[in-house]
Automatic annotation (TrEMBL), chain A:
Main location: endoplasmic reticulum
Role noted for this protein: Part of the endoplasmic reticulum membrane protein complex (EMC) that enables the energy-independent insertion into endoplasmic reticulum membranes of newly synthesized membrane proteins.
InterPro entries: EMC2-like, TPR-like_helical_dom_sf, TPR_EMC2
Topology term for the membrane: Peripheral membrane protein
Quaternary state and interactors: Component of the ER membrane protein complex (EMC).
Family recorded in the similarity comment: Belongs to the EMC2 family.
Domain of life assignment: Eukaryota
Species in which this protein is naturally found: Cylindrotheca closterium
Name of the featured protein: ER membrane protein complex subunit 2
TrEMBL record, chain B:
Compartments reported by the entry: Membrane
InterPro entries with a match to the protein in the record: EMC3 (IPR008568), EMC3/TMCO1 (IPR002809)
Keyword Ion transport: no
UniProt-recorded name of the protein: ER membrane protein complex subunit 3
Transmembrane segments annotated in the record for this chain: 16-35, 143-162, 182-200
Biological process per Gene Ontology, one example term: protein folding in endoplasmic reticulum
Family note: Belongs to the EMC3 family.
Membrane protein topology class: Multi-pass membrane protein
Keywords of the record: Membrane, Transmembrane, Transmembrane helix
Pfam families: EMC3_TMCO1
Gene Ontology cellular component list: EMC complex
C-alpha cells in the first residue's frame, strides 16, 4: 500500500510502475501519457505481459485502455480490449461498459447507445450506463430538452453526485435558465462548500438574475469567495461590480425596501474591492486602465 | 481471601494445551477467512428503488452537516421546507415504479416465478458468513469440553468474583474452595477468541486496492456486494425501504433547527473587519429614560 511519503515523483524516480499506476487511480489524476508509458513498461508494448497478481493486471489494462482513448490511440485501446476479453469474457458488465466507452470515443454513438440500453435492460440500476448516455446526448449536441432529460434520469438515481449537479449548471447556463442554474449551483455549494470559484460563480448568476434580494446574496457569496481565497482576482472584480449593482438597484427601489445599513456596507465593499484590485495590478502595464475603471466605481459612491 | 502461595501446575499443561489451543484457533480463523473469500457468491443486482432511496437520504442529510454555513439563510429555509416533501415524493415515485413493474411482470406471464423461487436461498447466502462462525464456535466448544476438561489450565493475573466460578471452572466442581483466578481450558478458549479479533485485523489487513476498487465499481454498476442486508430483492424489502423514506422525512422535520443561522450572513463583516460600518441602533432614540441621568452622574448628551 502507498505510504505517507510516497508521492508521484518519488514513485516515478523509483520506476515502480505498478505503484505509479495505482497512485494515479487513487488520486483520480488525468495523466494519460504517463499511464501509457508506465503501463507499457510494466506489461510490454503489446500489453501481453503477466503480473503475479491477476486483479492488478486487469485493473492496469482497464486504466491503460481509458488513457489510450484519451489520446485517441485506438489501436492500443483495441489491444487492451482483446487482452481483457480473453480473461474476463464478453459477458462481464464492466467489460461491456469499457467496450461502449471505446465505441463512444470512435464516434460510434449508436453502437454505444445500444450496449448501454442492453445493460440498462439487464440492470436498471446501472449508474455508469445512465451517466454515459447523458454524455453521448451531450456529445451529439442534441436538443437541450433531450440532454436535460438524460441528465435528469441520471441525477434522479444519484441525487448526491456533485459533479452531476455541476453538469446541470452548465446545461442551464447554456439555455439561459439562470434560476435553475442558481439552484443547481447551490447544490454544488452544499457539496463543495470550501471552493472559492463555486461561490464566485453563484454570485455571478445571482447578479445576472438581478433584484435586490438576489444582489444581496450575490454580495455575500462574492465576499465568501474572497474569504476562502484571498488571491481570487476575478472575485475581487466581481465584488466591486456586484456591490455597485446593489447600490444602483437600491437607488431605484422604493423607499421601504432600502436598508441604510446595507447601503453603507455595499459602499465599503466597493472601496475594499477597488483597493484589493489596485494592489494586484501595482507595477503592471495595465495599472492605468484598471485605475480608470476602479475610479469610475468609487467616485460616485457618495451620490448613490 | 488471599493465598500467599500459588499452585504449581504441570508444565505439560502448557506444552500440550495452552499453546496448541492458541495455534488451532489462529489456524481456524485464517481458514474461515479464506473459505469466506473462495465461497463468496457473485454480487447481486440492486434495485432502482434501493439506489434511489439511498441517494435521496444521503443528499437530504447534507442539511444536518457543516456545509449549511456556506449557503444563505433564505435558501436553507426553503430547503428545510422542500426536502421532506422531496422525500415523500420519492416514496410515491418508488411505489409507482413498483406498481409498474408488477403490472409489466403480469403482462409478461410467468417470468416472475423465476424471481420468486430462489428467494429463500438468497437470504441464506447472506447469513452464511455468520453461520460458519457460529457452527465453528459450537464445534470447538464441544471438542474442548470433551478433550480438555477436568484440570486447571492457568491462573489469570486478575481477581475474579465468585460468580465466575461456575462459568470458568466447568470440570472442577469438586474444588469449591479454589480461587476463581484458576480457570479451565474453556475460558482460555473464550479469551483467545475475543483477543484474536484484533490480531486478525492486523494479520489480514485491509483488502488490496484492486478489491476496494472492484467494490466501488459494483456500487456504480448497480450491483450490491453479497452478504449485506439489502441484498434480498423482494417486494417486502422494497416496501420496508419506502416506509423508511417516510420515517426519514418525519425525522428530518423534527431534527432540523426551527431557524437556520448560517455563517454566510456575517461574511461581509468578517471580510471588511474594521471597515464594517457600525449599525446605528434606533431603539433608544425616543426613549426618554435613557437620555436623562440622575444626580452627580449627569453627563453631557452629544
Amino acid at each position: 500500500m502507498l505510504g505517507p511519503n510516497e508521492d508521484l515523483p518519488t514513485l516515478i524516480a523509483r520506476k515502480d510502475h505498478l505503484e505509479v499506476l495505482r497512485y494515479i487511480r487513487v488520486h483520480e489524476l488525468r495523466e494519460p501519457s504517463l499511464v501509457i508509458t508506465h503501463g507499457q513498461s510494466l506489461l510490454g508494448t503489446k500489453l501481453s505481459g503477466n503480473l503475479g497478481d491477476d486483479a492488478a493486471r486487469l485493473a492496469v489494462l482497464e486504466q491503460v485502455c481509458l488513457a489510450a482513448l484519451d489520446l485517441s490511440n485506438h489501436d492500443l485501446a483495441e489491444g487492451c480490449l482483446s487482452q481483457l476479453k480473453d480473461k474476463v469474457g464478453k459477458e462481464s458488465t464492466r467489460f461491456r461498459c469499457l467496450l461502449a466507452r471505446c465505441l463512444e470515443a470512435s464516434a460510434d454513438f449508436d453502437g454505444a447507445n445500444a450496449i448501454y440500453d442492453q445493460l440498462l435492460a439487464d440492470n436498471p440500476a446501472n449508474l455508469v450506463a445512465l451517466q454515459r448516455k447523458y454524455c453521448i446526448a451531450r456529445a451529439q449536441r442534441k436538443e437541450p430538452s433531450e440532454v436535460i432529460a438524460a441528465l435528469d434520469e441520471y441525477l434522479g438515481q444519484q441525487l448526491s453526485d456533485v459533479s452531476g449537479w455541476y453538469e446541470m449548471v452548465k446545461l442551464r447556463l447554456s439555455i439561459a435558465d439562470f434560476k435553475g442554474a442558481a439552484y443547481a449551483l447551490e447544490q454544488v455549494v452544499l457539496g463543495c462548500p470550501l471552493d472559492s470559484d463555486i461561490h464566485m460563480q453563484l454570485a455571478e448568476v445571482y447578479a445576472t438574475l438581478g433584484g435586490l434580494e438576489n444582489l444581496l446574496l450575490a454580495r455575500k457569496h462574492m465576499a465568501q469567495a474572497l474569504e476562502l481565497d484571498g488571491t481570487n482576482l476575478r472575485a475581487k472584480f466581481g465584488l466591486v461590480s456586484v456591490a455597485n449593482q446593489y447600490l444602483e438597484a437600491s437607488s431605484e427601489a422604493s423607499k421601504k425596501d432600502i436598508d441604510e445599513h446595507e447601503k453603507l456596507v455595499a459602499k465599503e465593499l466597493v472601496k475594499y474591492g477597488a483597493t484589493a484590485v489596485m494592489k494586484d495590478y501595482n507595477g503592471s502595464k495595465m495599472v492605468e486602465t484598471v485605475k480608470a475603471v476602479m475610479d469610475d466605481f468609487t467616485e460616485n459612491l457618495e451620490s448613490l | 481471601m488471599s493465598t500467599a502461595e500459588n499452585i504449581l501446575l504441570d508444565s505439560d499443561i502448557r506444552d500440550w494445551v495452552v499453546l496448541p489451543l492458541f495455534v488451532i484457533m489462529v489456524a481456524a480463523g485464517l481458514l474461515r477467512f479464506h473459505m469466506g473469500n473462495v465461497l463468496k457468491p457473485d454480487p447481486k443486482q440492486g434495485t432502482k428503488v434501493t439506489q434511489r432511496i439511498q441517494s435521496s437520504v444521503r443528499a437530504v442529510a447534507i442539511l444536518k452537516g457543516g456545509a449549511v454555513h456556506f449557503l444563505s439563510t433564505s435558501k436553507l429555509e426553503s430547503r428545510k421546507l422542500a426536502y421532506p416533501k422531496l422525500l415523500r415524493a420519492q416514496a410515491i415515485w418508488c411505489e409507482n415504479h413498483l406498481d409498474e413493474q408488477d403490472a409489466a411482470g403480469e403482462k409478461n406471464g410467468g417470468e416472475n416465478d423465476d424471481g420468486d423461487m430462489p428467494n429463500p436461498f438468497s437470504s441464506m447466502e447472506g447469513m452464511m458468513g455468520n453461520m460458519a462462525f457460529m457452527v465453528q464456535n459450537m464445534i470447538m466448544m464441544q471438542a474442548i469440553q470433551h478433550f480438555f476438561s477436568g484440570f486447571i489450565l492457568l491462573k489469570v493475573p486478575f481477581r475474579l468474583t465468585l460468580g465466575f466460578k461456575q462459568m470458568f471452572q466447568r470440570g472442577l466442581e469438586g474444588l469449591a474452595t479454589l480461587e476463581t483466578s484458576y480457570v479451565s481450558s474453556i475460558s482460555w478458549y473464550f479469551l483467545v477468541m475475543f483477543g484474536l479479533r484484533g490480531f486478525f485485523k492486523l494479520a489480514i489487513g485491509s483488502p488490496a486496492l484492486e478489491t476496494q476498487e472492484t467494490h466501488q465499481a459494483w456500487q456504480k454498476l448497480g450491483k450490491q456486494p453479497p452478504g449485506r442486508p439489502g441484498t434480498t430483492a423482494g417486494a417486502a424489502d422494497d416496501d420496508k425501504q419506502i416506509e423508511m423514506l417516510e420515517q426519514e422525512a418525519d425525522n428530518l422535520e423534527m431534527l432540523l433547527p426551527t431557524q437556520f443561522k448560517s455563517n454566510l450572513d456575517q461574511v461581509e463583516k468578517r471580510l471588511l473587519q474594521n471597515n464594517y460600518p457600525k449599525k446605528k441602533s434606533t431603539i433608544a432614540k425616543n426613549d426618554f429614560l435613557l437620555h436623562h441621568s440622575v444626580g452627580k452622574n449627569k453627563s453631557k448628551k452629544n
